[in-house]
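Hi R.,

Here's the chain you asked about this morning:
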Amino acid sequence: MQGGFLEVQPTRVTVLADTAIRAHDLDEAKAIEAKKRAEEALANKDTAENLAAAQAELSAALAQIEAIRKFRHRAG
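And here is the predicted structure, written out as tokens:
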């Protein structure tokens, strides 16, 4: 499961999450490959368990790709 909470205070930020990845550690090629694998798994429509895992993997890969693009845009 992926998700969490972020609390922003004037002097600190608290992150409570199952996982966290620093923006500069994201690998776009790996995220795109994970997206392709997840899409292929979804197309196979195997078991409900495999379908749920593929949906979770696809969601994570899309989030990473979006984060990379936003990070790149900010970095200019």
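One quick note: The two ends are 32 Å apart (CA to CA).

Cheers,
M.
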